[in-house]
Recover the amino acids of this structure.
């Protein structure tokens, strides 16, 4: 299980650091994330849009709700 | 001559003349003999004529056989033992053996960018188009409200240099569903998994009911292993979805990169979709 480490507007995943930032969704809106399903979310970063899912832990914590999972990233 | 042994007779001393007479005992066919004479001509007519080299007897390589001593000849050739075979075929046979004529660069074999391909070693092609991935296979069908991998391929490490231009074409297909929207997305990742994958392309919405296919294309400009997605705003063709330019994508060509073709079905649990082929071409810069 892969872990996401959070730190003040940044996340680290697989030894790569991403700065969280907005992106433009399909409706031309600037958003920080976009839920794809009950288990997947698109997260805007400085290195593009990254897909995360509930198979990941955040700071070693496991989630079963994608909304709580997303909130824990910010 | 009576009571004289033949060894006691006077020797003739010369060759037998045609008119000389020789006494013989001729068989009567019944076990008895009758004394008769034959002439020297009779005797000579029954002898083989003197052999003349090249006339009555062959020569070998213009050398006469009418001589003394030993004539050394090559031992008979045994295929595979005394004489090589070619592709396991014997040379000891009749007919013509067709062999490829020696290759001459640019004459009977092409060159690549004016470089010969004859010789050992690696031919580094700095420029020119590469097509490292082509598939017309049908991807896995994705059913229901989900965002899942339909197809994928691995772009092997060092296929391209750190500075390159990549053009990806893929073909999302909506195959079942009277309502709802599906999209063909493309992600890249270091593993064949969506978790942590980076979105590099979003195909236009497939909202027509029933079967519909589209062609999608994404150009990725890579500088020092960092990818930039081109702006497709105001593209005239419906084949191109409108997206904002994106920069700073990790695109490290020194390691393998998986391209993941994902179908994202939304708003209709009955939707089915799949990717039905892709093509990646690129140029080193």
């Amino acid at each position: 299980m892969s872990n996401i480490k959070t730190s003040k507007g940044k996340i680290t995943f697989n030894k790569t650091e991403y700065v969280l930032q907005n992106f433009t969704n399909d409706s031309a809106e600037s958003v920080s994330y976009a839920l794809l399903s009950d288990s997947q979310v698109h997260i805007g970063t400085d290195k593009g849009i990254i897909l995360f899912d509930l198979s990941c832990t955040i700071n070693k914590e496991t989630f079963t709700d994608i909304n709580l999972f997303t909130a824990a990233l910010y | 001559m009576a009571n004289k042994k033949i060894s006691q007779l006077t020797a003739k001393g010369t060759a037998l003349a045609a008119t000389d007479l020789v006494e013989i005992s001729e068989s009567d066919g019944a076990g008895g003999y009758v004394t008769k004479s034959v002439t020297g001509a009779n005797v000579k007519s029954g002898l083989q004529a003197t052999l003349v080299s090249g006339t009555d007897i062959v020569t070998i390589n213009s050398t006469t056989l009418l001589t003394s001593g030993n004539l050394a000849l090559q031992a008979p050739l045994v295929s595979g033992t005394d004489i090589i075979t070619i592709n396991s075929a014997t040379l000891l046979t009749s007919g013509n053996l067709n062999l490829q004529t020696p290759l001459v660069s640019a004459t009977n074999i092409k060159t690549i960018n004016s470089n010969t391909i004859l010789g050992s070693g690696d031919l580094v092609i700095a420029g020119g188009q590469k097509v490292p991935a082509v598939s017309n296979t049908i991807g896995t069908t994705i059913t229901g409200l989900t965002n899942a991998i339909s197809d994928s391929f691995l772009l092997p490490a060092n296929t391209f240099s750190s500075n390159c231009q990549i053009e990806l074409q893929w073909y999302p297909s909506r195959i079942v569903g009277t309502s709802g929207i599906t999209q063909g997305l493309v992600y890249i990742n270091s593993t064949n998994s969506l978790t942590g994958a980076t979105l590099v392309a979003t195909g236009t919405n497939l909202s027509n009911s029933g079967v519909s296919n589209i062609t999608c294309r994404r150009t990725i400009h890579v500088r020092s292993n960092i990818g930039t997605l081109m702006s497709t705003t105001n593209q005239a063709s419906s084949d191109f979805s409108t997206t904002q330019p994106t920069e700073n994508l990790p695109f490290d060509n020194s390691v393998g990169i998986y391209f993941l073709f994902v179908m994202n079905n939304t708003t209709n649990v009955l939707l089915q979709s799949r990717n039905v082929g892709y093509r990646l071409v690129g140029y080193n810069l």
The interface with chain A takes residues 145-147, 187, 190, 194-200, 202, 205, 243-244, 246, 248-250, 264 of chain B (CB under 8 Å). The two ends of chain B are 122 Å apart (CA to CA).
